[in-house]
Amino acid sequence: MAAAVTGDLRRASLSALVLGLVSAFGDWVWAHYIQDGAVLPGVIHGLLIFTLLALVLGIAAGSGLALRRLLPTLPLAGLLIAAAFYPIARVAGYLGALLLTWVAMWITLALLQRWARGGRESHRIAMVRAALAAVGSGIAFWAVSGMWTSPDPDPSYALRALAWSFAFWPGFAALLTGQARPDSQSG
């Protein structure tokens, strides 16, 4: 049991690091090539991040079925959540929209992960995972949100990668820890 949890936490850490590195690269692209407030690049960004999330969660599930289900559905969810950012920002402001869509992302990931894995855990457990991922990662995201709300004119993208990884880690820890693997299922 302890070895499985350790493996799950390693998987969560690796997933957070991969998404942190990709997100920091995205920040660099935004800073150098994309005008603030550009909607289409934001929606494309959501599509790309959610495609990577589909790969990470599908591979972590250890199931071809999960990967086949997540690859088409998570990018669509990413498009919708990224597109929702802009009208939400008009009402809740920039940071409010960032936090709300970040939390929505983790809830969506938890529920689609349950479905992609064939409903192996109860809705209640999936909702607990969703809440832990959303709250834990939401707090971590808020803690590093200054990199967007008060950006350094000459940011360190290595520090941004660490900040992004820090923000992603609680969500991945909640979604990937304690999940039964297909090979550990009985009958």
How far is the N terminus from the C terminus? 20 Å
Structure classification:
mainly alpha
List the domain count as a whole number.
1
Strands, count: 0
How many DSSP helices?
6
Q: Provide the helix percentage.
A: over 70%
How would the global form be characterised? globular
Rg measurement, Å: 16 Å
Q: List the uncertain runs.
A: 183-187
Average pLDDT, to the nearest integer? 89
Description:
With 187 residues, the protein is mostly helical. The protein has one domain (2-179). Helices cover 82% and strands 0% of the residues. It is built from 6 helices and no strands. Helix 2 packs across helix 3, helix 3 (64-116) crosses helix 4 (123-143) and helix 4 (123-143) packs antiparallel against helix 6 (157-176).
Task: Throw out a few tags for this protein.
187 residues, mainly alpha, 82% helix, 0% strand, globular
Describe what is shown at a glance.
The protein has 187 residues and is an all-alpha fold. Helices cover 82% and strands 0% of the residues.
Layout of helices and strands:
Blueprint: H1 2-33, H2 39-61, H3 64-116, H4 123-143, H5 146-149, H6 157-176
Helix pairs in contact: 1-2, 1-6, 2-3, 3-4, 4-6
